[in-house]
Write a structure and sequence with these properties.
single chain; alpha+beta; nine-stranded mixed beta sheet; three-stranded antiparallel beta sheet; 16 helices; 39% helix; 18% strand; elongated
């Protein structure tokens, strides 16, 4: 696990009326491929367009219209597989998954069941407490998205928007390695982070560009270990699938509710029925949607309009050579190169844009000090102003100047906050601000000594108290800082006060 060592987190345990139960969770994450055109047509994938305006003849299921593979969709799937340390299958094939739905004009979905483009991989999911779960990826396959049925625009009719129809999705299927609601949300967040670094999916859950089907089952303590030893699913409970989750918080709430529902059923002597369920966040409950279909229910068969997809190893190698530094590697480097804590490195690498900004700030400067200013001052101000790092009013170069001015002793940390505020709101150069506003730190020991002598001479009673209780020397430091307008070097003031009071 890079240069970092983690222990596996303990499974989530829920106490039932009879005994304890553990959770077993697997996810199928649907990620919209970041491309300008759809999987088998040249229609736009632009979100928010007028209904039914991004629809080609093949998307609409017109007779005689043949699908043509979008090479960039294939390349993005390969990039994602490489980013998840997964095997890339040089030969894959598309199948027809037959079912009727009003927003699926063809009457079938083109997917990959038997021969996916990406095989087994893995994702390290850190939990922020020194633990991490290694989640195995079973496969990634390409498939078409369906359209959208709209039921709330008219009391008597439903409407259909086919703009999403045919948009390329990557379905990322995990093994049942996840053991709690928090882990499930962290896993989806980690996938999102990796794909955003790779540029293969924008991860926008609000727009439906990233959503998850969550499979939940329960088992008695010790049964999961038997499954791991044998890979025999009979040791695990019957799973239920919670469909189309697009919120990290709702994923956790739905898992917790579903697990408790299954525990109540089993302890009441009933069976858990394998089915697909929907989560209602208003009522915080899952409800039955339909019985869980098996592969034969969809009558899968090879798509006769598409030849097997064959790619060359050299093409895959070219894609691999162009991959960016991924979050785990970047985090380990930030810890090693800049001496950052695990927490600070995690915050800075959460988004690739944030990490790039920090590196520019820290270039040639103190990494820990730079991290402190980026995380606490800049991120805090941006959050308050509801801005992203790309809209930061202060550039990385100018924030780096502030870090340099602090490190060189030209300004104190307190003065630096004044400089930062002026630079943030006025687009002025920090060095120029320090000079023109007279904010340069006083490091002249004679000037500091004069201020210390004056304060001591004016407060003889406080001097006696400080000699009896050295902690009270801080009062003199504060008075000197006040007298110098906060511009005296705090370290020099502390040293001078201690010497003068003979502490």
């Amino acid at each position: 696990m890079l240069d970092l060592t983690y222990e596996a987190p303990a499974p989530k345990v829920i106490a039932g009326a009879q005994h304890d139960w553990e959770l077993v969770i697997g996810l199928e994450v649907h990620a919209q491929v970041a491309t300008n055109a759809k999987l088998f047509s040249g229609a736009s994938t632009l979100f928010g367009a007028e209904p039914n305006s991004n629809v080609a003849f093949v998307d609409a299921g017109m007779p005689g219209m043949l699908p043509v593979i979008n090479e960039e969709c294939v390349a993005q799937a390969v990039r994602t597989g490489l980013g998840l340390k997964a095997a890339i299958n040089l030969t894959s094939a598309f199948d027809r998954k037959n079912y009727f739905y009003p927003d699926l004009p063809q009457g079938y979905q083109i997917s990959q069941l038997y021969h996916p483009i990406v095989g087994e991989g893995e994702v390290l999911v850190e939990m922020g407490d020194g633990t991490a779960r290694m989640v195995r990826i079973e496969r990634i396959h390409l498939e078409q998205d369906a359209g959208k049925s709209i039921h709330d625009m008219d009391p008597a009719m439903s409407f259909v928007d086919l703009n999403r129809t045919g948009v390329a999705l990557m379905e990322i299927v995990s093994r049942p390695d996840i053991r709690g609601p928090e882990e499930a949300a962290a896993y989806v967040a980690k996938l999102r982070q990796i794909m955003r670094y790779l540029g293969t999916c924008d991860g926008n859950m609000q727009n439906g560009n990233l959503r998850a089907d969550v499979n939940v089952s329960i088992c008695k303590p010790g049964d999961y270990e038997k499954y791991q030893e044998t890979q025999d699913f009979s040791h695990l409970g019957t799973r239920c699938e919670i469909k189309n989750m697009n919120s990290m918080r709702f994923i956790q709430m739905a898992i917790d509710y579903e697990a408790r529902r299954q525990i109540a059923l089993i302890e009441d002597g009933q069976d858990v029925v394998q089915e697909t369920r929907l989560y209602d966040p208003d009522k915080n409950e899952t409800r039955s949607m339909r019985s869980k279909e098996e592969a034969h229910d969809y009558r899968y068969f090879p798509d006769p309009d598409l030849l097997p997809l064959e790619i060359e190893q050299g093409w895959v190698d070219d894609i691999a050579s162009g991959l960016p530094e991924l979050p785990d590697q970047k985090k380990a480097r930030f810890i090693n190169d800049f001496g950052l804590s695990d927490y600070d490195a995690s915050v800075l690498t959460a988004e690739a844009e944030n990490a790039a900004f920090f590196e520019k700030v820290a270039e040639g400067h103190d990494g820990k000090l730079a991290a402190n200013w980026v995380i606490n001052e800049l991120f805090g101000r941006l959050k308050k102003d509801d801005r992203g790092i790309g809209d930061s009013p202060i550039s990385a170069g100018r924030l780096g100047q502030i870090v340099r001015l602090i490190k060189s002793g030209d300004i104190s940390g307190k003065i630096a906050k004044q400089v930062f505020d002026i630079a943030y709101t006025s687009d002025r150069d920090p060095t120029e601000i320090v000079e023109t506003e007279g904010l340069k730190q006083v490091t002249d020991t004679s000037a500091i000594e004069a201020a210390v002598d004056e304060i001591i001479a004016a407060n003889p009673a406080q001097v006696e108290k400080a000699k009896q209780n050295p902690k009270l020397a801080g009062w003199f430091v504060g008075q000197v800082m006040k007298a110098t307008g906060g511009k005296a070097n705090p370290a020099a003031v502390n040293q001078m006060v201690s010497a003068k009071l003979e502490l």
